[in-house]
Amino acid sequence: MANRRPDVLEYPTGTTVLRIFQAILSVIIIIVVSFTVGAGIFAGNGLMLFTSSATLAISLWMIMAHISLAYLYNYWAGLSVDIFLLVFWIISVAVLASQTAFLWGASNDICREQDCPDAFKDATQFSGYIFAAIVGLGGIEFIFSCVFLIFHGIMTFRQRRYNRIGINIESGPVETYPKHPQEPTEYHHLAPERT
Questions:
Q1: Of the listed ranges 20-24, 148-152, 162-166, the one predicted with least confidence
Q2: Secondary structure of the chain as H, E, C letters
Q3: What are the tens digits of pLDDT across the range 44-75?
Q4: Angle 118-163/15-39 helices, nearest 10 degrees?
Q5: CA atoms lying within 13 Å on the CB side of residue 24
Q6: Could you give the dihedral angle defined by the CA atoms of residues 27, 28, 30 and 31, in that order, rounded to the nearest 10 degrees?
Q7: What is the pLDDT of residues 93-126, one digit of tens each?
Q8: What is the pTM (predicted TM-score) of this model?
Q9: Rounded distance, CA 187 to CA 85, Å?
Q10: I need a surface site. Which of 54, 76, 150, 155 has the fewest CB within 10 A?
């Protein structure tokens, strides 16, 4: 009878620890981004909030699947959500970085042309620092996503090599026997032979 236990790949030893660090870092990003939502809702901080929340959920799922609940593990689902995280982290970091650059650039241009209160200068500068810190933390999360995608690739190739998938194996000679006994195919006409 076939084994019903899911085929959990043997990831490197520190993978679960890295997933825990990724979950902690995503909680930190959620906390810091939630403070910026009160100052202004941009596409960048909203996307960063969504991506870090998804990262937290996926990291907790993978931690539980690797530590104790092996029936939760699905290789293809793990691979697809890691690709999803990789794409969303690079997009959210890029969007928030462009908005941070615009925030710093526009506030400096406005204050150069007009007389801005010191509170406005300080607020935009402080918000720029916070957004830059979030972009940096998002960059670290992007690196984590790259590492986990590399781990998935390595483990896939190891599993294929272990199962000998795609390897031509030399086989011995195959003996073939005729399916039907061979009968003589001589022509015997019905007329008796004359002597």
A1: 162-166
A2: CCCCCCCCCCCCCCHHHHHHHHHHHHHHHHHHHHHHHHHCCCHHHHHHHHHHHHHHHHHHHHHHHHHCCHHHCCHHHHHHHHHHHHHHHHHHHHHHHHHHHHHHHHHHHHHHHCCCCHHHHHHHHHHHHHHHHHHHHHHHHHHHHHHHHHHHHHHHHHHHHHHCCCCCCCCCCCCCCCCCCCCCCCCCCCCCCCC
A3: 889 999 999 999 999 998 888 877 777 777 77
A4: 150
A5: 6
A6: 120
A7: 999 999 888 777 766 666 666 777 766 666 777 7
A8: 0.71
A9: 78
A10: 76
- Residue 128 one-letter amino acid: G
44: its two tokens: 């960048």
Domain residue ranges of the chain, discontinuous segments joined by +: 15-163
